[in-house]
């Protein structure tokens, strides 16, 4: 197991290097000059020259890259040109917010999508199956912003049940923190739930036809046990892999969801940084997301590995 | 104690979306310590008949028209899936053609067998495990104790089929249904598995229904033989009767390709023509489209009538020699 993970990490290293080069060149290719943006309206040539020197914009590119990478490895992602805060500090502030949102959304997605997928596979061709598919289709096609606004109007404004926006750290008040995050997580989770439902359904349909499910029935096991223990356990492999790979969708969705519910998370950081041409922050975000992807891929591999006895024992 | 372990009476069923019943009027009986072989071409309904005895046909896709399964004296309607499901794995067990895919790849051998014990016998995990170990030893798996902790992929096809047999027999069923248990295995392993089933049967007195394509297998293990054609039993009798004195034109066609009981193994594909599909079943004798002796009377269903003792044939012209001369 460890050897397997170790190998995967080694394979991931060149990817990370490539990404870092890409992220670094991004700043060279992007239009707009951050120094001009910083220097303000007057654009005093002396100020500009001073700023260029201060932020190392006069060094040759490879030198700038090496400096940058060395910093990154030590956790120094540069200084936000806008807020003058270290980028790593900004990320550490915002990341937990988004991670909480993502985890809660994933819980919603699993709690809704997986049981629905199982039921619609087992009851294939019945009203239940059609209903589940219809719900999944709506989950995929209803835009998040519309669903979010409707929920805010109904649940917060009309019924006053949940807060409409904002963020409370779980350390401060866990229950309030969860309550505040409930609607955003639900909105973010619906589309994922639909995807999960469809994949669970098709994985279960495949597995239910298999010989070992027939064997389980031939043993005289209860149908419930046949489905949950024998069929679902094997359908789990593609489902778990998919969940890890849905990470990208989750991050993209989080950006939008955080805007709707004005949550001060990663998504808000992204939007602000892009609008302000705050390159250091953009770089940090892209790098962070890319590493997140690689980690989630590792998790997917590890899950695949752990769920497959065939690989485990070698 | 009733004479038959299992007695099937007038079993007919089809699948949803098909006009006629695929399997029609099947009646047969299995006695203690007996091996009944069911033979017939691919698609004639051998497997679905076996599955229906186990109550394993998909309930929402199956239409049971008639039939009673009398199991050790208890008459069970063929559509009482619930009752049948409590018998299976306990009094009635089944093994399948594909040992490579019939075990769950995600669980250890030991857990899969133990589960079968506990589903019917309850008891502690340790007791069930002891029972599982015994069962593995009984089917001649070396280092059985160690095997309990292994996964199916760590075993060869032959070993996996032994595990399947151990799992099927762990609760001492009185009926074992084996659906082509050796087809997927190579020849030496085939013989070992057949010997194993025979010796286990001798020990326990269980009855075996063996489905096979392979007349060599039939010759080796059968006490009695049922020949199936397009969902009907066309001839049933002792192995001797079927091999030496086949009466139904279809059986004769099959046997003519096997000169002797000890002849080379042969697949059942030597009768010219094709099996009718479920939506184009002939009204009367289902073999009429391929039968060299077919007459107008064959448009009515021939009953499975005795020709001698328990030897029964479903042909208007049986026994062939006498009747054909008369035509
Ligand atoms: N669930 C089902 N729905 C509809 N048709 C089915 C179903 N299961 C089996 N059949 C059909 O029933 C027929 C008989 O199948 P069966 O598997 O019993 O044949 P068989 O005699 O065992 O053949 P083989 O020797 O190839 O195993 C086939 O034509 C098959 O397509
Ligand atoms: S009943 Fe007629 S068609 Fe059927 S097997 Fe006999 S002779 Fe042939
Ligand atoms: Mg079959």
From TrEMBL, chain A:
The chain crosses the membrane at residues 9-30, 99-122, 134-154, 174-196, 235-261, 281-307. Its main location: membrane. One of its GO terms (cellular component) is plasma membrane. It is a multi-pass membrane protein. It is found in: Cell membrane. The keyword Membrane applies. The keyword Membrane applies. Pfam families: BPD_transp_1, BPD_transp_1_N. Keywords: Cell membrane, Membrane, Transmembrane, Transmembrane helix, Transport. Belongs to the binding-protein-dependent transport system permease family. This is Peptide ABC transporter permease. The gene is dppB.
Automatic annotation (TrEMBL), chain B:
The keyword Membrane applies. It is a peripheral membrane protein. Gene3D superfamilies: P-loop containing nucleotide triphosphate hydrolases. GO terms for cellular component: plasma membrane. One of its GO terms (biological process) is peptide transport. Keywords: ATP-binding, Cell membrane, Membrane, Nucleotide-binding, Transport. Residues 6-255 form the ABC transporter domain. One of its GO terms (molecular function) is ATP binding. It is found in: Cell inner membrane. It holds the Pfam family ABC_tran. SUPFAM superfamilies: P-loop containing nucleoside triphosphate hydrolases. This is ABC transporter ATP-binding protein. The lineage of its organism: Bacteria, Pseudomonadati, Pseudomonadota, Alphaproteobacteria, Rhodobacterales.
């Amino acid at each position: 197991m460890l050897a397997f993970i170790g190998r995967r990490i080694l394979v991931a290293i060149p990817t990370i290097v490539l990404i870092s080069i890409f992220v670094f060149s991004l700043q060279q290719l992007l239009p707009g000059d951050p120094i001009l943006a910083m220097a303000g309206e007057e654009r005093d040539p002396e100020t500009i020259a001073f700023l260029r020197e201060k932020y190392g914009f006069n060094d040759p590119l490879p030198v700038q890259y090496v400096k940058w990478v060395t910093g990154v490895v030590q956790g120094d992602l540069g200084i936000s040109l806008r807020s003058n805060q270290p980028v790593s500090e900004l990320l550490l502030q915002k990341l937990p917010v988004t991670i909480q949102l993502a985890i809660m959304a994933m819980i919603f997605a699993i709690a809704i999508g997986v049981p629905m997928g199982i039921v619609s596979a087992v009851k294939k061709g019945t009203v239940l199956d059609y209903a589940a598919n219809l719900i999944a289709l709506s989950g995929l096609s209803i835009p998040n912003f519309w669903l979010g606004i409707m929920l805010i109007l109904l649940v917060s404004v009309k019924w006053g049940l949940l807060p409409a926006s904002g963020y409370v750290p779980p350390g401060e008040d866990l229950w309030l923190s969860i309550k505040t995050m409930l609607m955003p997580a639900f909105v973010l989770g619906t589309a994922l739930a639909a995807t999960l439902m469809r994949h669970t359904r098709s994985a279960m349909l495949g597995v239910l036809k298999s010989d070992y499910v027939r064997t389980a029935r031939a043993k005289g096991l209860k149908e419930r046990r046949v489905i949950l223990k024998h069929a679902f356990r094997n359908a789990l492999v593609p489902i778990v892999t998919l969940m890890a790979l849905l990470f990208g969708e989750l991050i993209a969705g989080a950006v939008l969801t955080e805007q709707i519910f004005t949550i001060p998370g990663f998504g808000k950081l992204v939007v602000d940084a892009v609008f302000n041409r705050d390159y250091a922050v953009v770089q940090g975000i892209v790098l962070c997301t890319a590493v997140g992807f690689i980690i989630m891929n590792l998790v997917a591999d590890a899950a695949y590995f752990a769920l497959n006895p065939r690989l485990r024992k070698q | 104690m009733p004479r038959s372990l299992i007695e099937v009476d007038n079993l007919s069923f089809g699948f949803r979306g098909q006009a006629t019943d695929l399997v029609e009027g099947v009646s047969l009986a299995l006695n203690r310590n007996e091996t009944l072989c069911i033979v017939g071409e691919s698609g004639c309904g051998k497997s679905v008949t076996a599955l229906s005895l186990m109550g394993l046909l998909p309930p929402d896709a199956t239409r049971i028209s008639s039939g009673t399964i009398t199991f050790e004296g208890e008459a069970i309607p063929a559509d009482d899936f619930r009752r049948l499901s409590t018998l299976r794995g306990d009094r009635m067990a089944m093994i399948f053609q594909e040992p490579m895919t019939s075990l769950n790849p995600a669980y250890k051998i030991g857990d899969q067998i133990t589960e079968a014990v506990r589903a019917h016998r309850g008891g502690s995990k340790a007791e069930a495990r002891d029972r599982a170990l015994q069962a593995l030893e009984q089917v001649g798996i070396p280092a059985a104790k160690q095997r309990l902790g292994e996964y199916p992929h760590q075993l060869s096809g032959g070993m996996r089929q032994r595990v399947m047999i151990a799992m099927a027999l762990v609760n001492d069923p009185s009926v074992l249904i084996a659906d082509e248990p050796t087809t997927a295995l190579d020849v030496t392993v085939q013989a070992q598995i057949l010997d194993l089933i025979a010796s286990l049967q001798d020990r326990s007195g269980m009855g075996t229904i063996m489905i096979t394509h392979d007349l060599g297998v039939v010759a080796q293990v059968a006490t009695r033989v049922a020949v199936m054609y397009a969902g009907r039993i066309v001839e049933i009798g002792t192995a001797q009767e079927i091999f030496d004195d086949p009466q139904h034109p279809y059986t004769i066609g099959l046997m003519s390709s096997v000169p002797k009981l000890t002849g080379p193994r042969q697949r059942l594909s030597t009768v010219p023509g094709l099996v009718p599909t479920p939506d184009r079943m002939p009204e009367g004798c289902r073999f009429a489209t391929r039968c060299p002796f077919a007459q107008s009377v064959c448009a009515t269903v021939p009953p499975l009538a005795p020709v001698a003792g328990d030897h029964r044939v479903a042909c208007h012209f049986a026994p062939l020699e006498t009747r054909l001369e008369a035509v």
